[in-house]
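Good morning N.,

You mentioned wanting to compare the apo and holo forms, so I went ahead and generated the holo version with fe (iii) ion. This is what I fed in:
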Amino acid sequence: MSALPSLDITRARLLILGAVQGVGFRPTVFKLANDLGLAGWVNNSPQGVTVEIEGTRTSADEFILRLDTAKPPRSSIRSVETAWLAPAGYRGFAIRESETTGPKTTLVMPDIATCPECLTEILDSAGRRYLYPFTNCTHCGPRFTIIDSLPYDRMGTSMRVFEMCPHCRHEYENPSDRRFHAQPIACPDCGPQLQLRDRNADVLCSRHDALLTAAHAIRCGKFVAVKGIGGFHLMADARNQAAVTALRERKHREEKPLAIMAPSLNSIRCECEVSAIEERLLLSPEAPILLLRRRAGSCIAPAVAPGNPALGMMLPSNPLHHLLMRELGFPVVATSANLSGEPICIDNEDCQHRMGGIADLFLVHNRRIVRHVDDSLVRVTLGREMILRRARGYAPLPIHLAQPTRPILATGAHLKNTVALASGHSAFISQHIGDLETVAALDAFERVISDFQRLYEIRPEVVAMDTHPDYLSSQSAQRIAAENRCPAIPVQHHIAHVLSCMAENEIDGPALGVAWDGTGYGLDGTIWGGEFFNIGAGGNIDRYAHFRTFPLPGGEIAIREPRRSALGLLTEVFGKDAYSLDVPPINAFTDAELARLRVMLDHSINSPRTSSAGRLFDVVAALTGIRQRTSFEGQAAMDLESAASDLQSCPPYPFTFADGVIDWAPMIRAIVTEVRQDIAPALISTRFHRTLARIITDVARHSGHTTIVLSGGCFQNERLLSITVTQLRAAGLQPVWHRHVPTNDGGIALGQIAACLRNPNPA
Ligand code: ZN
Ligand code: ZN
Ligand code: FE
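and this is what came out, ligand included:
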């Protein structure tokens, strides 16, 4: 570089793509340009950020060089296209009006937890935002949940109805202010306000009084519906066993664990073990619910997570929650305000209507939530995070696709549904929608699909769906495909699991794909769920191995009654002797029930066969007497995992593997013998987990593949995942598993997109 700057004036136009809107990117550009004495302008466009700089070539080069390090913390640059142009004679540097035309490819930012500066401000009694629950800045605050349309500007958000006061406008227009172009900027004089309402929607009080009165009610054991960032929470004192039990009754939620919001990291440490990485995640801008190991002597009521060694804990992530939790000073249950199987409430009136029989009071405000976003759920396994529910803080950031694609819409799975929209190099995965088993959930599913298409202005050219012909999501997919005159491509559920994991890890194959979960529609008339796939380097995928199948008497009902899975499997191993075995699942039936089930099994009536690994967990949970009935999906497997111990010297049970079929019969015979010898469930569970890891390792070795892809709901089981990864590594193989995309059915939509990419010209 020359010591003397060139006096030749030049102009460069930069098109910056990535997560560059709603994070203070333009002020950074403004400051950098001013520091370097460059003239020109910056604006937001639907594609990203456009910058023109004019000045010496040295300064322009310096600008481009420094942009990456100077960019704001929550932004990320995916690409910068530079064009060198003749000087235009700009004077000074300006932030221009946003452009609203052209294809919409910019990244919509997720909602970001309150930053330290804003937190300090709301606690500063001398400041004008003291105790103001809607404080935010360019580094924090709502984004995805307030955006109606792109580009990200106040007029395109639900903040447009609040006219800025002169104070706020000054901050908004001052490039050196932390709130320069912070679209949701607000203060007590001009922004949204709180109200506390009773069950009749009568306003009891407003502003800070509303918050204080709500806190008092929670302290007294009442339930308050609190409007947060992406929807309402139901809050109750988490230490109060009677209150939590009553909340469960009102919500018809029997045993599924409830999430907890704690006032501080120290408060979480009193209840749970927190590692360094877990601490980082709790305090991160995403601020998810983290599954943490509960400490002995925790003050959390047992009814919060009955029999579960883990607690789902989060910290406040917006000023309203911060202020409320400071006022309370103790942990509260903060569960989504919804009826079982329905999406979370986002609208004041709707919440009043749907939660009227559950909440005693409603702490609401007048900032509209544009779309629902639940709290995200994360667990740390093997020293890294696994996102189990991808929503607030993460959605809708895309997964990068190695190959560019034409527009694809994927409609996801039936349970834990998410949808995805892919275009170019990005796959945008929606926020968690839920189980599509109620009309309300299906409405939410359709709403998210049209919302995503409208937001990104993408019309699908392919619609991917599950192969199950009866799923309502598949029917919607076919209708959307017909509307767009494009093909609807069915993708097998477990293949989608494996491809989802490969897509997020950016691997192509060849690989062995292991997809273990509860159930999915198979391609041979059975229910799959314990599958191994040969993934070729090209598009070819074939089923390499699977568990021996067994009948599920009663079909769907068996999912809620592990004893039915046990009975079905025992008849395979012991024939008619199964009905008289002295083991807990058989003893859990009356003679009349057994007689009825026997007719079903003998004549194969409503007894579909399954190779599911998830159901195998149910069988062992039932055999060990741990659980015969469940009240939520995966409960028996969770209990079985909790029962296991860390004994290292437990040998696996015997099994056989021949002709692509893994036969569990030798293991089941051994377990039945042990159960009758009163061997402790802890020991049986430990040996069972080790057996499963051994099965994967043996099949992996046999397959000749080096890369082993682990996906499906079973790998939410920390013990199974860690033993399997350890054993595969010890065998010199390379295990790959999920991190940012759920290993459960929340990841299926991405896998469906990946399937369409592998097979771009379906018949
Ligand atoms: Zn802030
Ligand atoms: Zn104001
Ligand atoms: Fe699945």
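The chain has four domains: 9-95, 194-365, 398-491, 547-745.

Happy to go through it together on a call whenever suits you.

Best,
F.
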